[in-house]
Amino acid sequence: MPFQLRCFTLLAAASIGSASVALADDGHRARVPLLPTYQQECASCHVAYPPGMLPAVSWQRLMNNLPHHFGTDASLDAATVQQLSAWLTANAGSDRRVREAPPQDRITRSAWFVRKHDEVPPAVWKRAAVKSPSNCAACHTRADQGDFDEDYVRIPR
């Protein structure tokens, strides 16, 4: 893909409201628009994690176990489960950093997450404003837009 076209594609993708980050075929990051149903159902309880943060096998297991979703009953009707599963699987991470499913299919236990957050002291995760590593929006001010760039990190006191 020519440089100008790639830049236009990335700029156009970035201008789409909330989006998740995934790797395009050429290895550059591209935004995948979030499915409205995903935002409605999943982001009502937590940040709408970009599907590229987990491999397809993890998303499949998570979607097949919604009645026991990390200690919460997140059950949905069959049609919604099928729609979300198809979208998550189609947009799942496939680059080398997410090829392997993390322990318990937890993003926060993936090797790349641990590596990216290795400088965060354990006490930070326990702060009232943070609560846990899964609360991305506590520090990543643009997490709701699928933007986890370090330039927009503000760690609460």
From TrEMBL:
Signal peptide: 1-24
Keyword Nucleus in annotation: no
SUPFAM superfamilies (UniProt xref): Multiheme cytochromes (SSF48695)
Keyword Signal: yes
InterPro entries associated with the record: Dihaem_cytochrome-c, Multihaem_cyt_sf
UniProt keyword annotations, A-Z: Signal
Name by which UniProt lists this protein: Cytochrome C
Source organism of the structure: Noviherbaspirillum autotrophicum
